[in-house]
Each structure stands twice: as structure tokens, then as C-alpha cells.
Specification:
Elements lengths: L9 H6 L13 E6 L5 E9 L5 H6 L12 H14 L3 H14 L9 H15 L6 H8 L1 E5 L7 E5 L4 E4 L4 E4 L13 H6 L13
Antiparallel strand pairs: 1-2, 3-4, 5-6
Helix pairs in contact: 3-4, 3-5, 4-5
Length: 206
């Protein structure tokens, strides 16, 4: 009943700092569940509490939870990254630290590339159930690797040399994501509507 098709990887769960509220029980994630009879069930995996609709599961009906398309925290982090990439470290820290403060974390004081790394990490910690990570990987060509247990940090390294996590079988592999997967295929309808696109599908999607 509690199985979720989308489970957070250990790298993400283990990277949260102990004081980070987002990693605490029944914030973004959960590890145990108390049923209506008071029985406590320990999960085999870390589940996604933000998606857990108890009434829907028990009563066998469609869920009515609303998931936001975008939250204010993401707006702040977009601003922070844009400012950091243009050398405006102070303003970038200002926006980043608004998100960190709400999560119970101290201010980030890094600058330059270390600040960009901190912002990318914050995006992963703040938006783990909103599927932003893949777009971040695609646009930056960087992939997160562990950087210490409960350190609050991740190392964002070039995708081609990164150790890729494979959640289903628990294995890792270097370079497991092919280059073509970083681009969307051109939709067939667009290619049919525009003859000049014929024969110019993005590599790997033919």
C-alpha cells in the first residue's frame, strides 16, 4: 500500500544536513507510518510524504492533493543562480539564504563556482519531488555526487565522468547517460508540418 514508484536515492537522503528541516520525518519524506488502528509500520524504503494521500489509499478513491507547478523557493533559486553566474555573489547569496533560512540552515557565504555548486545543491534539496533535477542535469551537463554523509553538500561534476546512480538495481556506472538523452527529440508532428526539418532529427532519436 505504501510503495511509491518514485523513490529518492540514498545519495540525496544522506546528503541533507542533520539540521535541515526538509529531511526530517514527514516533511518531504517518511520512514514509518501509523495506520488508523495505531499500528506503526516501518518502510523498507524512504517514502515521499509530500505525495502521500492517506484518505485516497484507505478509501480507494482518486487523490485530491494539489501539487504546485512552481513554488516561491524555486523563483528565489532561479534568481540566485542567475546572479551567481554573472558574478553578483552578494545578491545571489541574499536569495539563496532566504531558502536556507526557512530550512533551518545557516547562511551560505561561498562565492564563485562554489556558490553555484551550493545553489545547485539547494535546488536538489528543495525540489526533490518536483522533477527539476533532470532539467538541471541537462542544462548544466553536471551530475551530483556524494560529498560527505549529512554534510549538506553535493559535488556537481561533468556528466561524462560522473558516477551515475541506478536506483532499481542499486548499482552505479560511470557515463551511463548517453549524450543524445540530454536533448529532446523533435516531435514527429513538427517534422511533418515543416519539411525543412526532415532528416534533421536530434542525434540518437532517429
Amino acid at each position: 500500500m505504501l510503495y511509491n514508484a518514485y523513490l529518492p536515492c540514498d545519495m540525496l537522503i544522506n546528503s541533507y544536513a542533520p539540521e535541515d528541516i526538509r529531511a526530517h520525518e514527514k516533511q518531504f519524506f517518511f520512514r514509518e507510518y501509523t495506520d488508523p488502528d495505531g499500528n506503526i509500520h516501518q518502510l523498507n524504503n524512504t517514502g515521499n510524504w509530500a505525495w502521500f494521500d492517506e484518505g485516497s489509499l484507505i478509501n480507494g478513491r482518486d487523490g485530491d492533493y494539489n501539487m504546485p507547478a512552481m513554488r516561491y523557493a524555486e523563483v528565489l533559486l532561479i534568481a540566485a543562480e542567475g546572479l551567481a553566474r554573472t558574478g553578483n555573489n552578494g545578491d545571489a547569496q541574499f536569495y539563496l539564504n532566504q531558502v536556507r533560512k526557512r530550512a533551518g540552515l545557516p547562511d551560505e557565504t561561498a562565492t564563485g563556482d562554489a556558490l553555484i555548486q551550493a545553489i545547485l545543491t539547494e535546488r536538489f534539496h528543495e525540489l526533490p519531488l518536483e522533477f527539476r533535477i533532470w532539467d538541471d542535469i541537462r542544462r548544466t551537463r553536471l551530475y551530483p555526487e556524494a560529498d560527505g554523509l549529512q554534510s549538506g553538500k553535493l559535488k556537481w561534476v561533468p556528466l561524462t565522468s560522473a558516477t551515475i546512480q541506478n536506483k532499481p538495481d542499486g548499482k552505479t556506472k560511470v557515463g551511463a547517460i548517453p549524450e543524445y538523452a540530454l536533448l529532446w527529440p523533435i516531435p514527429l508532428a513538427e517534422m511533418q508540418a515543416n519539411p525543412s526539418l526532415q532528416g534533421h532529427q536530434n542525434p540518437g532519436w532517429n
